[in-house]
Amino acid sequence: MSASDYQRVSRALISVSDKTGLVEFGQALAELNIEILSTGGSAKMLADAGIPVKEVAEHTKFPEMMDGRVKTLHPMIHGGILALRDNDDHVKAMNTHDIGPIDLVVVNLYPFEETVAKGSDFHTCIENIDIGGPAMIRSAAKNYGFVNVIVEASDYDHVVAELKANDGKTSIETRKKLAAKAYARTGAYDAAISNWYAEQLGEEFPDRLVLAGTRQQSLRYGENPHQSAAFYANSENRIGIATAMQVQGKELSYNNYNDTDAAFELVAEFDPAVSGPACAIIKHANPCGVATGSTLSDAYKTAFACDTTSAFGGIIAVNQLLDEETAQEIVKIFTEVIIAPEATDEAKAIIAAKKNLRLLLTGGLPDPQIGGRLVKSLAGGYLIQGRDNALTATPELKVVTKRAPTEQELADLKFAFTVAKHVKSNAIVYVRDGATVGIGAGQMSRVDSSKIAASKSLEAAQNVGETEAWAKGSVVASDAFFPFADGLLAAAEAGATAVIQPGGSMRDDEVIAAADEAGLAMVFTGMRHFRH
Question: What percentage of the chain has pLDDT greater than the value 70?
Fold first, then answer.
């Protein structure tokens, strides 16, 4: 006999932790006269539903032992799964040892990832590492020519439909697809265990790092139409783009995902209990306006005023419940995505009138102090680094000029440095009264970033009929030190009265002297925030 296109299923082995849909699936198999072998809780649930089932221990003539650690690791099981039905020696061995074929293996694994996510202790996590399950899954997947393997309940209906349509048989195409999914599942499972173990040992960057994710969405294309793309979620479970519920609007694009994540991570820096309502407007992963306000609507309008041109077609993130008044303001211009912890029914109704506008609700804010890994792909490898989770709202500030900043300047300096953390380097951010009034991003020269930010502040003022640039009387933040005094002098020329920067340049003394001569207050943070 050869591994022909279609193979009959006569016997199934079911051992699942997640019992979603188990009874209905078991009933369907029984109606197809497929014998069911099962273990423990799975066998009990099937039997209680009146479905004929045979315990694995009865099949192997060998009892479960060691608290269930040894039950399916037996030749009667793996011989039945791995045997090649078209190999005479394999068939002879099966007959000699009375090993019956197993044609369908249904296994989902001990909930290791969920156990870790709950913060369980070391021993509990170890006990939730499945051994027999992965072994059976891999055995079945290897023998895809004859054996089907199901690792997700979502595949039950498809397999049953194919069995019913083909007189109890499945196609080799189906078996291949199931095998591929099975190996992906065991690979991700082992990755979760490996990475968890490294964390327990304090190894931030182990010798062998395994990345795993679950596809959430296949995207129409990547950054450009000629690039393919998809979005995968990892096991981090960080509140944000991966956990958000899309209430309405078109599917998110690759660039939407990237920009929305940038927007929400930025606005999460502003705890509503401390900073009050906050809004960030993002374009091409850079903020074009960020502000706090007495109301969320005020915060949005102030952020929007910073750069009304760039805000068109942007991403809007807010740090609290999206209300009706704010929604009414947002829909006045074209916006790609709104992301918020929650929204009122009235706000949802207003946004619903814009059928293409995406609304994402996350249920909360991510903790900006929580760590994690950031991954960047390079030719032939990856760069891995920890998340920039330094709390920039309260850096250790050192006044280095003759004049110390006023209380208002100090508040704005902290705000500006927080925003600068989320602006592409070289980053210059002008802030006045808790709102950005000019942002310069991604330039090769810090002086150019200063000039661009100042130009933006003049443009913002002119948009509302004012003649004096909003940078006048503002404070300015730089994500890294000023290597020369020219960048600082450009900020002073724009009208800034106080400066926040990391410090650490060989010419710090020169820069400090220039600040003193210009009458600026300047503080050093001792911390930089490059963002490439």
Answer: 96
Distance, CA of 266 to CA of 292 (rounded, Å)? 12
Q: Is 284 marked active-site?
A: yes
Q: Which residues pair with 398 in a beta bridge?
A: 524
Q: Of 19, 54, 90, 142, which is the active-site residue?
A: 142
Confidence (pLDDT) at 484: 81
For residue range 255-300, list pLDDT tens digits in order: 999 999 999 999 999 999 999 999 999 999 999 999 999 999 999 9
Cα 505 → chain centroid: 36
What Å distances lie between residue 62 and 56, 57, 444, CA to CA? 8, 5, 71
Q: What is the pTM of this model?
A: 0.85
3-state secondary structure of 111: coil
- Cα 171 to Cα 159: distance, rounded to the nearest angstrom: 10
Decide: 498 and 521 in contact? Cβ < 8 Å.
Answer: yes
User: Terminus-to-terminus CA distance in the chain, angstroms?
Assistant: 59
Q: Which residue has the tokens 């315990």?
A: 55
Q: How far is Cα 156 from Cα 117, in angstroms, rounded to an integer? A: 27
**Alpha-carbon span 201 to 180, nearest angstrom:** 32
Task: Find the catalytic residue in 90, 158, 284, 354.
Answer: 284
Task: Answer whether 266's CB lies under 8 Å from 290's CB.
Answer: yes
Q: DSSP readout, 468-503?
A: S-TTTT-EEEESS--SSHHHHHHHHHHT--EEEE--
389: preceding bond cis by omega (within 30 degrees):
no
Instruction: Assess whether 59 carries a catalytic annotation.
Output: no
d(CA 9, CA 37) in angstroms, rounded, equals: 13
